[in-house]
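Many introductory courses stop at the sequence. We go one step further.
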Amino acid sequence: MQPIGLAFKKQRAKRYSTQPNGELMIVHLCLSCGKIAANRIAGDDNSYAILKVFDHSLSLEEDIKIKIADLAIRLLLPEDKEQMLTSLFGKAYSQFIT
């Protein structure tokens, strides 16, 4: 499985929730069969490697983007970056990014 992008898990509407999206997920592509799956980020995953996955996902081939969209997975876009950084590092994420 190769990580190819990031997405937020769809979250059910919660009346008093302050978090607009669900948890951050890594979208993987199986190199053997071509299956695409989204998996939760583990606590011991390297946050900086996850940032590289995000950057790489911005230049995915169009056919892969279509295949992901057909699965009702919404890849994160550049305008989602701040929300993604907050999810990874917290509100003070700027101290971790140079």
